[in-house]
Write a structure and sequence with these properties.
Helix 11 (357-367) packs parallel to helix 12 (386-394). By secondary structure, this protein is an alpha/beta fold. It has helices spanning 5-15, 32-45, 87-98, 106-113, 132-145, 160-166, 188-196, 218-229, 262-274, 338-341, 357-367, 386-394, 489-509; strands spanning 22-27, 51-55, 64-68, 76-79, 119-125, 149-155, 173-176, 179-183, 208-214, 234-238, 278-282, 286-291, 295-299, 304-312, 316-318, 334-335, 349-353, 372-376, 398-401, 404-411, 415-422, 428-432, 435-438, 442-444, 475-477. 28% of the residues lie in helices and 25% in strands. It binds flavin-adenine dinucleotide.
Length: 510
């Protein structure tokens, strides 16, 4: 296993941060997979005199290894190779086991340490899954902070029989004490809430914010920074801090930054927001908004937050096809993340619903490993760019079906068939397959605003003026949840800034 010289030089810098000696205890056999893991670990150990490798017996999964201090178990185990997107998880585990404090809120750290019941997590990942490291890293942090918690990352490629026998068709798939626990991307706060229940935080002591931002994506953070820089008492409440950007692998259009990755960008954005006096409240969902003497926002957890002005930066989420079977077979063949779940469909028939850019990108990616890929487009023509249509048309195992409506996804414990209707003849047809990748765009996260009095357009987007104001004085909106013509990170950040300055102007006129 040869690490590239670029990775090695980055690695050297990280390994210099090891706080104390760590032991990697490896359980290997003589097979090819074990040899790969051995080569990988040897190469890492050669780069730091603080790392020692020893042999050990770690259970039934081979190859596997644990990272621990000489005198103390850590509860962190890697089964298979932590390469690809999991390489960072491996490095962070090394540093945290060595004694470096994980970068999480103190409150979250205290809640983790207060857990008393023994919890053993297992997370199945694919190395191309960009949603997996968040979950792996969160559970590793929990294991480092609390001896009652342990966590094993299982790399699906090396443990295919296990993945098959468990029927895992979507990663990350987390098991707790042997039972299915969660699936898909989740933050440490969300996992903690699932383990320990909702934070019983009482928000009554928060007082009245000048500006309360709802949303932790690019628009929300930009709005919060601009508001705080105006000296306003600013809060930011978000269900999933980071927003859609956390699902983005490569970003090449942040002006001034040639290339970055979603999680990296949003961690820098978080650091930037935290450098101002912004009260960040994570893992809380706002369920209603009402303008009384102040604007009152009710949270799903029961709390109420009050503000003189509110900026809604709610973003968007994947659009569902809304056909029978979609909900029932979610994570059992129906998926929204080709990068994450593609490798689980190797050699199988799959469908991609949607012939736009994301649909054809997914189809081309999947064609490399699936047996046959069917693209189903509702309209008579594909909407994707020609640069994607041409290779898709030329790829022998991609079949494009135009002018068809998906009618139903059927199966038993997992997806087995997809039924669709040819729209010109009304004839119903079916395809035998095991995976359905839904790629039909996004919808604004505004369904809860329907009866709020805030004006929405036909697409459910919040209608705003050039100051970012909605039709209700004091309530502003920004980013993908608004009726802005285009949806991009930089546009969201710009509109967040506009809404914050709009809110400031509104406040000084009061
Ligand atoms: C796969 C993918 C790739 C992309 N690639 C690029 C790219 O390369 N370049 C680019 O410029 N753009 C890209 N985009 C678009 C870009 O990510 C969005 O335009 C941008 O994230 C919008 O920012 P936002 O803050 O408006 O919304 P979001 O990023 O969607 O953030 C919304 C926030 O609101 C929170 N929220 C929603 N409802 C509630 C509620 N009721 N209570 C509390 N919190 C709530 C969410 O949890 C989240 O924190 C991509 C999008 C996707 C999906």
């Amino acid at each position: 296993m040869a690490l590239t010289s670029e990775i090695k030089s980055q690695l050297k810098q990280y390994l210099a941060l090891l706080e104390s000696e760590v032991l990697i205890e490896a359980d290997l056999t003589t097979d090819e997979h074990s040899q790969q893991v051995k080569d990988f670990l040897d190469e890492i150990a050669q780069m730091s005199d603080k790392i020692t490798i020893v042999e050990g017996e770690l259970g039934s999964r081979k190859p596997s290894f644990t990272i621990r201090k000489k005198e103390k178990e850590s509860g962190i185990l890697f089964a298979g190779l932590p390469l690809g997107h999991e390489f960072t998880s491996f490095i962070l585990a090394l540093l945290q086991v060595s004694g470096r404090t994980p970068k999480i809120d103190e409150e979250v750290s205290k809640r983790i340490q207060a857990i008393t019941q023994p919890l053993h997590f297992e997370t199945y990942v694919s190395l191309s899954c960009h949603n997996c490291p968040d979950v792996v890293q969160a559970l590793n942090i929990m294991a480092v902070l609390n001896p009652a918690i342990s966590h094993t990352m299982v790399e699906g490629g090396m443990f295919q029989d296990e993945v098959k026998s468990k029927g895992i068709l979507s990663v990350p798939a987390v098991y707790l004490n042997g039972q299915e626990f969660s699936s898909g991307r989740a933050t440490i706060e969300q996992l903690l809430e699932k383990i320990a229940g909702p934070t019983k935080e009482d928000f009554s002591d928060k007082g009245i914010y000048d500006v309360l931002v709802v949303g932790g994506g690019p628009a929300g953070n930009s709005a919060a920074i601009y508001a705080a820089r105006k000296g306003l008492k600013t809060g930011l409440v978000a269900e999933t801090f980071g927003g859609q950007v956390m699902e983005t692998v490569g970003i090449e259009n942040m002006i001034g930054t040639l290339y970055t990755e979603g999680p990296k960008l949003m961690s820098q954005v978080e650091e930037h927001t935290k450098s101002y006096d912004v009260d960040i409240i994570k893992a809380q969902v706002v369920t209603s908004i009402e303008k009384k003497e102040t604007i009152e926002m009710t949270l799903a957890s029961g709390g109420v937050l009050k503000a003189k002005t509110v900026i809604l930066a709610l973003g968007a989420k994947w659009r569902n096809i809304n056909v029978p079977g979609e909900e029932e077979f979610r994570n059992k063949g129906v998926t929204y993340c080709p990068h994450c779940d593609g490798p689980l469909f190797e050699g199988k028939n799959v469908a991609v619903i949607g012939g736009g850019n994301s649909g054809l990108e997914a189809a081309l990616d999947l064609a490399g490993l699936a047996k046959q890929v069917y693209v189903l487009e509702f309209l008579p023509e594909l909407k994707a760019d020609k640069v994607l249509q041409d290779p898709a048309n030329e790829t022998s195992n991609v079949t494009i079906l135009k002018n068809v409506a998906t009618k139903e996804i059927v199966g038993d414990s997992q997806v087995t068939e997809l039924h669709y209707v040819e729209r010109d003849t009304n004839e119903e047809r079916s395809i035998e397959l095991e995976g359905v990748f839904v790629q039909i765009g996004l919808v604004p996260s505004t369904s809860w605003l329907k009866d709020s009095g805030i004006e929405l357009n036909q697409r459910g987007e919040i209608v705003v003026d050039k100051y970012g104001s909605t039709n209700i004085c004091g309530i502003f909106a920004a980013g993908d949840c608004t009726d802005s013509a285009y949806k991009q990170i930089i546009i969201s950040m710009g509109s967040g800034a506009t809404a914050a300055i709009g809110a400031f102007d509104y406040l000084i006129r009061q």
